[in-house]
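Thread: nickel (II) ion complex, take 2
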Amino acid sequence: MPVKNRFAELLPEITAWRRDFHEHPELLFDVHRTAGKVADLLRSFGCDEVVEGIGRTGVVAVIKGKTDTAGRVIGLRADMDALPIREATGVPYASKTPGKMHACGHDGHTAMLLGAAKYLAETRNFDGTVICIFQPAEEGGGGGREMVRDGMISRWGIQEVYGMHNMPGIPVGHFAIRPGAIMAAADQFEIVVTGKGGHAARPHDCVDTTVVAAHIVVALQTIASRNVDPLKQVVVSVCTVETDSPAHNVIPQVVRMKGTVRTMDAKVQDYVERRVGEIVEGTALALGARAELHYERGYPVTVNAGANTDYAAEVAAAVSGHVETDTPPLMGAEDFSFMLNERPGAYIFLGNGDTAMVHHPAYNFDDNAIPFGSSWYAGMAEARMPAA
Ligand code: NI
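Output below.
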């Protein structure tokens, strides 16, 4: 199963879709134009069912194989949203909306899955059903979570799910994957420390919130250095510290801090959340202040199931001959995790070559990756549901 010849023929067409999406980036759930075009194309391919409005603006397409002897159903997922970034690529098909940009290559993911859908609808050389999933709001809105909440998994009886993300730094046409945790859970927190403000020359009359906040920042670093097993990954970052004092001689009444926690394991995540709470409360208490913690869970850990990782790697190896099966996990987060929490599956990286990193204004998806990505999506369906 090398790169399918059909995708060499379809490359100009898929590239044109990709560049059209690139010119018209849309954010979060507000992907109406993109989703509309995706749905129109899916209908033009002759998909058996195309449903819009799943998870607000997600699109689901059903493609039935020539046979269905075992009731197998495989989900293939792409994301459709862009980022609030001003594009600096200088390409002729650059964003026409200043301040919005496909800087994470989701235009490429959408186009590659559309290409696979076109091929699968033409050939139907599999025994079962393919569900193509186009989700909104990967970049912080939890579009994957919304599609799951909308009942997508049970409505179409999805049994396994597979997703892909392009990755700068990996050669075009090469794949990388790992079993287990591949992307982190991302939580965020806000800490509000309240003391007693006053004259900076009379600290004994005050409860100095700045000093309390500083102790909290330092103490939080002991979660990674002293509490969590050093062989487990954890990041605790305090990223903003803001006081209500504009002056050099006023002790502030209130200090607010915001930060993020990244973990790779649900047990570590629970433990870190508890320790953040204990440290915030205990440190404030010890120094005579009060502190409130608002801790919010974000995307969960993206976990590749062992067997499904092997299936994904086998298809990638057949498509390109180059697959790294022990790529290091990343501390970024991905909301395909909500689908992987529902059903076994895997998430794989596809090389984007020596380009700027995703989320950079000069990032650009490499269209030469399209035949590899489309072949992998289509290959997953054919390999997991071989023609009867
Ligand atoms: Ni992305």
